[in-house]
Design a protein that fits this description.
The chain is α+β, with helices and mostly antiparallel strands. It contains nine helices and ten strands. The strands form three sheets. Strands 1-4-5-6-7 form a five-stranded antiparallel β-sheet, with no helix packed on it. Strands 3-2-8 form a three-stranded antiparallel β-sheet, with no helix packed on it. Strands 9-10 form a two-stranded antiparallel ribbon.
């Protein structure tokens, strides 16, 4: 509207018609502020975005039809048509993008600052009416035979497309013949959709209120459900606990390979050692008030009296064996004289003590 400010009926008293016009007399331009760079060949105009673009500065989408104050500059000629270039600033950031007219292809080219959102396709693939190219137009103007052949092809195309067009027309008539019924059906579908939207909105609101969050939620998908189920299956032990468990298993294993050693025997031995009371076959007399050394009968030869090795626990047998060997080394065991003791091979019951009472033994050792 600024260009109309110079067009008025008021002329100042000192106006001289020799200047040729009121704008020249006042030293202003008809476009006023839009012509502030006219000395550089730049005019400020309103430019409307011809297609959808992506800004390279803020990466935001700018839709077709958005208007900007752009600097219009003439950069060349295409035959007798001037080629203009438009520079404008993004309204979402400080980035500038430059768009140039392309009169040869009836299009606009982005020079810098943005990129085009590709929505172009070949119109011949979906049956659209395609304008003739310049080569075809020139040949139609010069070659009458080609013009006749081209007209015949157009008629054949129209005849082949006529059944499809009639079918589409009849379908449209059937769908919208009864406007009241069609409108009623559409409104019912809309009500159903609105009910589903409100239901999902209430569920999302309750979830956000429960979690004390204020973020927009996306639609639930099958992939999200599967991922949530996998995340809910938490492991029983962490990585550090698994490492500690493996380390303990390695420590419990035997360092030397043996044929009669297995995991079950080891667990039994560990259980006995960790118990509060060891079951070593020690019997305490009930009638005596003082402590009595237990009596353990070792089997000397087959067929002799006493307790068999199978009936004595393995730990007690090993303990008794160590006691006998210790007594022999220290000279605490006295051997019996006489042929009866040597022939019979039967030793008297050995009295052993767990507190190291080595002097209480009165029997001979073999």
């Amino acid at each position: 509207m600024g260009e109309r400010k110079g067009t008025n009926k008021y002329y100042p008293p000192d106006y001289d018609p020799k200047f040729g016009g009121l704008n020249k007399f006042l030293g202003t331009h008809a476009l006023r502020e839009r012509a502030r760079k006219i000395d550089k060949g730049i005019i400020i105009i309103r430019f409307e975005m011809p297609y959808n673009i992506w800004c390279d500065g803020c990466k935001n989408h700018i839709g077709m039809g958005v208007r900007y104050n752009s600097e219009k500059t003439k950069v060349g000629m295409y035959y007798t048509t001037p080629v203009y270039e438009f520079k404008m600033k993004c309204h979402l950031c400080d980035n500038h993008f430059v768009i140039r007219a392309d009169p040869a292809n009836f299009d606009y080219i982005i020079i810098s600052g943005a990129r085009r959102q590709e929505n172009r396709w070949d119109p011949t693939q979906n049956g659209q009416v395609v304008p003739e190219t310049k080569e075809v137009q020139k040949r139609l103007f010069d070659d009458q035979m080609y013009k006749l052949e081209h007209g015949v092809e157009d008629k054949n195309t129209m005849e082949s497309a006529k059944p499809r067009l009639i079918k589409l027309f009849n379908r449209n008539e059937d769908e919208w013949a009864d406007c009241y019924t069609a409108n009623q059906k559409l409104r019912a579908d809309f009500r159903k959709q609105n009910y589903e939207i409100k239901k999902l909105k209430n569920i999302d609101t309750a979830l956000l209120k429960k979690s004390n969050l204020e973020i927009p939620l996306l639609e639930e998908r099958d992939e999200d459900k599967k991922l949530a189920k996998l995340l809910s299956m938490k492991p029983m032990r962490s990585g550090e606990e698994n490492s500690e468990f493996r380390r303990k298993n390695l420590l419990l294993q035997s360092s030397l390979p043996t044929s009669n050693f297995n995991r079950k025997k080891e667990e039994t031995a560990v259980k006995l050692l960790n118990g509060t009371k060891l079951n070593l076959g020690i019997v305490k007399k009930k009638d005596s008030g003082s402590f009595t050394h237990p009596v353990i009968k070792m089997k000397g030869l087959e067929g002799s009296e006493g307790v068999h090795k199978e009936e004595i626990p393995q730990e007690v047998s090993m303990l008794s064996k160590r006691k006998f060997e210790s007594n022999e080394n220290m000279g605490a065991v006295k051997r019996k004289d006489g042929p009866d003791a040597e022939d019979s091979g039967i030793s008297e019951p050995k009295r052993t003590s767990l507190v190291g009472d080595y002097g209480s033994s009165n029997s001979d050792s073999d």
